[in-house]
Amino acid sequence: MKLNLFLVFTICSIMVSMAQTKTVSEANSLSIAVTESNLAVVTQNETTENADKVKVYPTITEDIVYYGLVDENINFTITVYDVYGKKQDVEVYKGTIDINQLDAGIYIIQFSSKHYTVTKNVVRK
Fold first, then answer.
1. 2-124: which CATH topology?
2. Pair 110, 81: CB distance under 8 Å
3. What is the tens place of the pLDDT at every residue in 53-112?
4. Three-state SS across the chain?
5. What is the pTM of this model?
6. What per-residue confidence (pLDDT) applies to 70?
7. Domain ranges in the chain?
């Protein structure tokens, strides 16, 4: 239990740090590697050119997250993970992600294409 709390605290600290230090020329993001047991390993990495290709808003919400893609011609796979790295089942529509059925907490949305991967963070109230 202590390890789980430590991991949650560490991930939350990274997210807060990223939000506070984000600049126009450099943006931090989280990288997610999915394991066979449907759990993911979350690590921090640097992205400089792809962070602005996906916009997510609002970042704090109760039900719907909207997203916008700079290049509409690229097909993305959208996956939502909780802070423990577990994949969450959500409804994804063109331009929206319904997180209404999820518990309150921090979630990581991963947009993956053949060309690049972008991760964004949202909070469900």
1. Immunoglobulin-like (2.60.40)
2. yes
3. 899 999 999 999 999 988 888 899 999 999 999 999 999 999 999 999 999 999 999 999
4. CHHHHHHHHHHHHHHHHHHHHCCCCCEEEEEEEECCCCEEEEEEEEECCCHHHEEEECCEECCEEEEEECCCCCCCEEEEEECCCEEECCEEECCEEECCCCCCEEEEEEEECCCCEEEEEEEEC
5. 0.64
6. 87
7. 2-124
